[in-house]
Fold each of these.
Amino acid sequence: MTTFFQLLIYGLQLGSVYALLALGYTMVYGIVGMINFAHGDFLMIGALSTVFLAMAFMNTSSAALSAIQVITIILIAMIGTGLIGVLVEAIAYKPLRDRPRMTALITAVGVSMFLQNFPRALPFIGPNPRPFPRLFPLVQLNLGGVTITSTQLIMLGLSIILMVILYFIVNKTPLGAQMRAVSMDKDAALLMGININVIISLTFFIGAALASSSGIFYASIYPQVDVYMGSWLGTKSFIAAVLGGIGDIRGAMLGGFILGISEIFATSINSNLGYMIGFIVLILILLFKPAGLLGKFSIEKV
Amino acid sequence: MKFSKRFKSILPVIGLAALYGLIMLLKSMGIANNYHIQILMFAGVNIMMTLSLNVVNGFTGQFSIGHAGFMSLGAYGSAIITTLILKPSVIPASMEIPVFLLSLLVGGLVAAMVGYLIGLPTLKLKGDYLAIVTLAFGEIVRAGLRLIEPIGAARGMIGVPNYANLAWIFLFVALTLFFVRNIIYSRFGRAWIAIRDNEIAAEAMGIDSTRYKIISFTFSAFIAGVAGGLYAHVVSFIQPDTFSFVKSSDLLVFLYAGGSGSLTGSIVGALLLTSLPEALRFLASWRLVIYALVLVIVMLYSPKGITGGYELPFLRITRKDIYENRGKKISETPLQETKEGDV
């Protein structure tokens, strides 16, 4: 029983990483209708920039990072990655908006390759993995045999706060209403005077910023950062987004946690099974609910 | 008239033989070395894979993004025959070619069977969801192969006899082209193109879209399996991780950069983009950055791919070719017209 709860906690922490990343996939899909394969690389950019920011801060103060410094680092990394997301959209995806979806998908593969290999080619980053600095204090709490670290609690708390903020923005603010309108019908939204370009840029900004935060959280639990970390984490989060019903924000959160928890439990049996389980769960769910758990199946009109 | 027509139909064969002769000549003159030949063999395998992907993505309009899964099934299927069941040390030299061909057939059949079984429940899914299931399929195959100990698990299989040489690759690329071209312009191909262009309209015309999609998927998986078998016998070392999502996305890049829905596009895309990274090797770690930039620029400025939908004369069939035997006169419009907005 203790093992069960221990695994559940690991599952929740991995799940929160997946959920934050899946939110970006699902928002971009909902609004632009494309699968952004480069999304996972925003996670890597967030984690990598945090490494360098932390190095810069540590040089000046030379002591451990204070709480204010950590918050500043996280905010700079999130905003910076968000701006990179906006830039990527403006350069690579905007001209393709009215083209077939496969074209945008292949372009996204190209962008992903670029985002991975450009830092790899830069001499001061390079291909080697680097250690991730400790941002959060490390205190171990023991609850009846189940160990929880303060890092886990902080990252779980922060990711839930971020998700609640996002849910509030999308569902309760005028901005969110505009976003939902664009995702329902782009042309009608344009006729209602909504600036589609601004909304799409904003979606990419939010998505990339959330990916950046998930990168920071992921690297806080598995403290190693390299330029390729985004690709397979991205694939799995994408699976999580589809599992919950792509285009639905609650679905992405639910899918992320389902994937994280099932993966941890399967990994405790066999590491390759842990890798497979996400895909198996996905196929099973899609066979019975073809639009994902919370997705609505759109009726095709002639 | 009759002679010139017959001559026209064997012209591609002569051209291919001449090309092979030219390469062998270059090799004997020392201009082309084994490294070039090796790249050419990889390019041949990639052409087959891209053609196979083109059947599903380009002509049937479905999205398979896990095609490396079929390739790995074919590679393992045929390598098991030549390496584990009939060991290379046991086989007499005269039996090498039949065993090799048998193994390729087995590889193709294994992939086709799995393609059929996967296609049966999933091809009812639409568009992006199908794409995701094929992605999941590819990754499940990879992770599954990593679990099986007799075939080397994650370490892979070593000592696969390298039976495949450039001549075999040439032959199989030519055969694949022949079969794909002919099936595209057959009843099946016309049904696939109808489904791609408008599935609802195709259904209304009485085409059983699920059935034709499964046929397309199975046919494509068979080619991918044979290509995988050839690959195993070129490199003589296969590993589950070779056939990861990276491989699948490479194939997608070949297809769409070359021009999907065009057989010429698949050939040009696979040939060019297999050799480009090799040609850029002098750039060291900037190589893939340049490659990625080239890819994005091609997609942005040439949406129909490098070939822009052009088809080589011997790969093209006009209405005239189809109806000539029936004594009807039909204008010489190409059968397969790609609309603006089609992939």
Amino acid sequence: MKDNNNRLPLVSLNDVWKIYRMGEVDVPALRGATVDIYKGEFVAIIGQSGSGKSTMMNMVGCLDMPSRGTVMLKSHDISKLSESDLSTLRGKAVGFIFQQYNLIQNMTAFENVMLPLEFLEIDEHEAQAKARKVLESVGLHDKMYHLPSQLSGGQQQRVSIARSLVTDPEIILADEPTGALDSVTGREVLSTLQTLWKKEGKTIIMVTHDLNLARYAQKHVELKDGKVVDIRENNNIIYSDKR
Amino acid sequence: MRLNKIIRHALNMVLHAKLRSWLTILGIVIGVGAVISIVSLGETMQKQISSQLGDLGGDLLTLRAGASRASFFGPGREGGGGGASAVSTEDEIVLDKTDLQVLKSVSGIKSIDTQISGQADIYYVAEKGSASVVGVEEATWATVTTSKIAEGRMLGPADTNVIVVGGRIADGFFSRQVGLNQLITIEDRLFRIVGILDDTSSSIYMPIDSAYAILEDKDKDEFDTIIIQVKDEDAINSTMASIEYKLAQKRHVLGKKYDFTLTSNKAVQAQRSEMMGSMTTFLTAIAAVALLVGAVGIANTMFTSVLEKTKEIGIMKAIGARNSDILKIFLIHAALIGLIGGILGLALGYILSGILPSLMSSSGGGPFSRFGSGDAIISLNSVVLAIGISVIIGIVAGTIPAVQASKLKPVDALRYE
């Protein structure tokens, strides 16, 4: 659905159901979720544990397919894309930031950040320059050749952010990005996300159960028992003074 | 993903699971090593057989009294002019002058060497020993024998009381070396050495008349063996048929079981060669089982690796890896294990193929006793095959795990702990 500015949504979920089979029982994780997310929005998907937040994030990130309904990403119906096209779309359009960072342990920070570019077969020199630049932008210029095990939690999350940014995606998907961090480092990460949203015009979709974190976002999508129960603008956004 | 990156990731996987990778590689090393050494041993033996065939002369036939006794590894004629061992054990069946007359009437025969042989006591400077004495037709032996002279000369027409000795008689048989023109006592007769053969035998060759005098159990004009040289090697089969027919006719055994045996060196060598080939194939098949076990090892390692890397596969898929990228990484991982195993197995095979022949010959021999020396042969074909097969085994064993890895759903893989 077009918004007031006549824009098409970047991400659109229309009556999306996701049903998992647990033995003989069908367990719905999403029940007819409908939501549109537009370019340049900072959206927090909130809800209690088990409300379907992560399932929704997996749909948006093309990591999982809906059982019913449609998920449109950049005007592509993800159910109709081949595996190869899905991978390419995921690689180009979406950057993931995970709660547990999900870095590959036997690769250095630099190699982890290079990886998405290698899958996209970007020229080696160009890829190296991009990886270096993005690692510098998250303040890790002196830790590039450290293994994840040699970095603190905050530093690992910054590597994860750098990896999500290196392909210059339109959408950043952050799944509980501060969940494993202390409050100070968590605020730094949120500050980074706000910078990406405000200054670089990225679309940020953040999944969190913490309402305090959701206050950094512009729009809230609230889920309960797999249903979207509320979509509201956040009129009291907390802006980080850093960056 | 580009191939060089895929190889780097695969290599990284091999290096980061060192112990498991090396144990898997060890399985392939043993399999390839066994195959290579056995194939090499076979090729070495085949080559030596071929070279012996050349040395023995494909134009020679050996006639013995008595019915054929099949033996792939019969006494042969190595180390001398032929018939080193007595053959006819049946007293009433002999080869004699009349057989010789029959042979002389066959067209297609170039020369004939009649031989008798037996053991005799020999004495040299107060030392005594027992050696094989072969009486040969002194006029024709030099042309018929495949032995090479190292020093001096062969026997010749009208020679008497002279001998040609094998290499070991000259050096090693007695505590002192025996040289040309030295005198040796055989039984109670004195002989002068006129030639030393280029071999390691302990045989002594002398004119047949002298041998009759030495070997008392041999009757004059009866022979143990007759060596026949044909004029045309290509027509050897027809000459053989002609000889057999005429001999059978003369010995009144036409249409019955022959009481003589005529063999061509070529046929004997072909039989040996075939036997060696079969044995090599059999041993290679056993070694191939070791390779199969290695392949199962690779498959096992790959399944474990997929399980261990499930989360990484999920991460890679989340950041843009295609199914084909994951498939290639795991396939090349398996191929690399095969390749490294193949190269190391080749080295092991090379070492084993150098050691095995001497081990087999020193352990009492059998068919291998004659293959104790000589360099191991590892042909380019073996090298290419060993490495190629190892890589293919790796890929085949790694296919199912790799497909399994590539088909993992990213969302499931990411949840895996």
Amino acid sequence: MRVVVVLSGVLRPSADGAARLEVDAADGATLDAVLDQLAARHPALDRRLRDERGDLRRYVNFYLDGEECRRLDGAATRLAEGAEIQIIPSVAGG
Amino acid sequence: MTHLTLLAIGTRKGLWLATSRDDRATWRFTGPHRPVDSVYAVAIDTRRRPARLLAGFANEHFGPVVATSDDLGETWAEPDHRALAFPEGTDAAVARVWQLAPASAAEPDVVYAGTEPTALFRSEDGGWSYELVRGLWDHPHRGDWTPGGGGMALHTVLPHPTDPRRVTVAMSTGGVYRTEDGGGTWQASNTGIRAPFLPDEYPEYGQCVHKVARHPALADRLFLQNHPGVYRSDDGGASWRSIADALPSDFGFPVVVHPHRRDVVYAFPLVADLRRFPPDGNCRVYRSEDAGETWTPLAHGLPQGRFWSAVLRDAMCVDDAEPAGVYFGSRSGEVYASRDEGESWRRIAEHLPDVLCVRAATVGE
């Protein structure tokens, strides 16, 4: 299946300037698995999204077809064909 | 001959760089470099020519990274991959880098990094990629180390000036640890250092050591600013004795040794842990010229009776010029510089974010 990852502007330099990335994933792949595939292509992007344990960074939000993944199953959320993953930094800092 | 002096100022919101070509009379500033990131650690590696600047940038959203610059901050490079990270099986993640310490000239490509959570990393490629020093991470005491007010971090790394097998580190809390076998085994080295916040005030470990410094020509003598207390060791850290009697208070964060005169040491006393500003609001650096037996307040050019700020553990430094320059930054975003070893001071920056660290060095002609 194919899913689409949409990056906010601040993340695009870490993905060779891409705003939108298409990922061919196994049917029923999890968000984590999609991020693993992205990591192989764009390691600089991956370390901004996840720490070395693979945990999603606390102040980065991942919207799966509009729903933040932490309201679903987090990184273990399974994706459907054509799913859109929007990655947006959360409101944080001071 | 005109020297080029570089002063790096890490703050809670970015890095500023200042250069001087007129014996530190005037400074040209650039910055903020990476204004979103906090900069707890910066180092100027003068073993290389041109000198390499290393900075630990921590981004609230996107995590930490160590970046390097070989052109005095004009351009920066950082690895795409996680070059400073805990290995699998540790179940830990680097939150920020608290210390970057080039090793001695005997190991020209070795750089150490101290991190939060408390761990030591070692680079053998000039600070580009790092490996966890397992001997310290696997130390049986580690489960007892607890966070200090600033987090749970290894904030001080002192590679031995001539023997690469010997490294001294300090952490809050935990105290001082030393290795003499290149990092394989580590011994707690806190004998004589008080920990008034623990039931046993003189434990083997668990102290909240704030900073340790040494003169490279006198490797076995160490100076230590504790929480609370100011100490000296004459046996490489095996034992410590107080040198705080002549200070107005024994709390503080930084301790800095003169680059050339081995008996000269600087401190910035604060009233106490619950009153983190200098006595009576007097901004005063204290200098000892006899290894801590006596101390002299240095205040010429510094604000008196109206300075309700603090100087953090890495926010004071010296350069390597003659006479030595001394620098410190405050939590209120001011930077003061002395080019006469502390006799007189001038404010060279203000209205910066909280200053977390400063480093200075001669970087060229």
